[in-house]
């Protein structure tokens, strides 16, 4: 008689080990998801500024429009064309702008340089946050 397979005790032991390992793995997955969502929002905003600089050089100027509630951003050329519109609040990410303002406009001149004072965008999700600082010349740094 061939007795291939696992005994009930072996299966029960595997289940006990899996149940013991599940909470740390679930916590790690939630942290990775939160980190991914924050990075995604930060990179989408950085992409807005990069595209606005290129559009400003080609079109003679551009504006990045940012809205904190709901979080979104857009690139508009001086001709009035919207070249990019993106949601920055995917996955529950919230956005705070410098000075607690509800919205902001960052202008770029024909040379692709910023024409405003610096701007800090703070992306938050649960207890974690990421910052994107835009200098007065339109350069972006991630913090």
Largest sheet: 4 strands, antiparallel
Counting DSSP E segments of at least 2 residues, the number of strands comes to 8
At CATH level 2, the architecture is: 3-Layer(bab) Sandwich
Q: In what range is the share of β-strand residues?
A: 25-35%
The overall pLDDT, averaged over residues, is: 90
Number of discrete helical segments: 1
Describe the structure.
With 143 residues, the chain is α+β, with helices and mostly antiparallel strands. It has a single domain, classed as minor pseudopilin epsh domain (minor pseudopilin epsh fold), CATH 3.55.40. The chain has one helix and eight strands; from the N terminus they run αββββββββ.
What are the defining features of this structure?
143 residues, minor pseudopilin epsh fold, four-stranded antiparallel beta sheet, alpha+beta
């Amino acid at each position: 008689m061939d007795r291939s397979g696992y005994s009930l005790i072996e299966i029960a032991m595997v289940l006990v080990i899996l149940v013991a390992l599940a909470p740390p793995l679930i916590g790690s997955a939630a942290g990775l998801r939160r980190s991914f969502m924050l990075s995604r929002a930060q990179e989408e905003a950085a992409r807005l500024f990069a595209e606005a600089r290129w559009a400003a050089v080609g079109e003679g100027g551009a504006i990045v429009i940012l809205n904190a509630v709901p979080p979104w951003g857009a690139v508009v050329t001086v001709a009035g064309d919207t070249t990019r519109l993106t949601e920055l609040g995917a996955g529950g990410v919230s956005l705070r702008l410098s000075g607690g303002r509800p919205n902001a406009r960052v202008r770029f001149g024909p040379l692709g340089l910023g024409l405003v004072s610096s701007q800090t965008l703070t992306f938050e999700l649960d207890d974690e946050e990421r910052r994107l600082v835009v200098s007065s010349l339109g350069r972006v740094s991630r913090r």
